[in-house]
Amino acid sequence: MAKQKIFLGGLNLFKYRKVLFKLKHSNSAGHLTAFIEKMENAGLHPVVIDTFKFYYHKLIANETGLISGKEIGPVSSDEVEDASDVQQYAAAGQSVLKNTIMIKLNGGLGTSMGLAKAKSLLEVKEGKTFLEIIMTQAETPPVKLAFMNSFSTHEDTLHALSRIKPKEFPLSFLQNKFPKILQDGFEPAVWPKNPDLEWNPPGHGDIYSAIYASGVLTTLLQKGIRYAFISNSDNLGATIDEALLGYFSENNFPFMMEVAPRTPADIKGGHIARHVDGHLILRESAQCPEDELQAFQDINLYGFFNTNNIWIDLVHLEKLIKTHGTVNLPMIRNPKTIDPRDDMSPKVYQIETAMGAAISLFKGATVIKVPSARFLPVKKCNDLLMIRSDNFIYKDNRFILSPNRCSGEITIDLDPKYFGKIDFFNERFAHGVPSLLDCESLTVIGDVCFENNVTIKGRIVIENKGESQAVVKEGSVVDGDLIFSK
């Protein structure tokens, strides 16, 4: 039976939808004026406002920010330089340390770990916080240090630094914010219950606008600082490497991204690809069409992930901004509710960008394969247990895998109900964390507390089926599954 056209007031359904789309977007100019006024009232820099306008126009033009597999191809291992093959550049790197700064992305509150303050204030190992470790890492080898804070972490960080009393106080600048956009009508989202929820952080891709709008970029260039190494504050392996710095500076690269081989644990992270036009590109999971997720997660097809350790030539960055007015990165359209804790609150779009996506904007940008030691992020309490254990040694301001480790990578899966938040985690390891040197995997199910001097060996499951807390006694050697039934 042939399909019939549905007519509404003389319009078939297809034309009706087109008219509806035009009507829905006819007020976009007025909405944009409202957005601009809102951002100006919040004291945001004109560069930030222009950047938002760029993405807003893309949004109302129904651009999704998705990157199809038809537009890209994989990057082979033959195309990627290995960090182990550039050690001869160490001397060159040492000679430009005075022209180098380490910038830490310090905007996270660590809410996934139950924190209410800057995540960088969390104690990591030997009584030292992320912040204290970063401060010492900037001293060996010696380089200038800066933090990009968010409005949520800025005061916490400055207060903590005043207690540390460093020899040289690091630079700080603020990450910007974008107004959330109602999905229905594309107008500014309003939430009187909590006006702070009307804004979202624009992602770490905001660093380029933030460093420029804050005046920090101009200040650094005036002081002869040309090379910046940028990384997340919770990546304990992201330190200044003189050989990588020398390789970057001697080859006059404008931009260099550290990448690592993808494993099954990295299938959700952004991967590197080559655009059909020839340049390198970063594709995040939020930019992948749903029907291509299987290919996105194929680690044999897309073999390298972005560690978010970035080297950038600040002279090239300034030229890019002055030429284009902003750094227009590929857009990530992130659908959310205005209150992330209330699924019934209005649906909004958050416009975000990824720092590594700038690789597609710099002619001559490159990537380099680095060892796993340069990627030690602490995203969850599972990661924190691994770092606090004897698996890792903190020596010479670096975290190194213990030479006494008996096997390869370890997998840790702690019950999120009892270990997911830092307070619960600390309570259950109040007497110290177990020895994991001989552990291949550890899974803990239920409420379990560990006493002092516990050793875990092999592939172990510890499960508490009872209603009261179970205790792994002091001095226990657990070399087989441990089940508590009462």
Provide tags for this entry:
486 residues, alpha/beta, Spore Coat Polysaccharide Biosynthesis Protein SpsA, Chain A, UDP N-Acetylglucosamine Acyltransferase, domain 1, 2 domains, eight-stranded mixed beta sheet, five-stranded parallel beta sheet, 14 helices, 26% helix, globular, disordered N terminus
The number of distinct helices, counting runs of at least 4 residues, comes to 14
Strand order across the largest sheet: 4-20-14-17-13-5-8-9
**Any idea what the shape is?**
globular
Largest sheet: 8 strands, mixed
Count of domain modules: 2
CATH architecture annotation name of the largest domain: Alpha-Beta Complex
- Name the CATH superfamily assignment of the largest domain: Spore Coat Polysaccharide Biosynthesis Protein SpsA, Chain A
Strand fraction equals 25-35%
* Low-confidence sequence ranges: 1-11, 16-21
What is the end-to-end distance?
A: 66 Å
Helix content class? 25-40%
Mind telling me the C-alpha Rg? 25 Å
Kindly state the mean pLDDT as a whole number? 92
CATH class of the largest domain: Alpha Beta
Beta strand count: 29
- CATH topology assignment of the largest domain: Spore Coat Polysaccharide Biosynthesis Protein SpsA, Chain A
The secondary structure category is alpha/beta
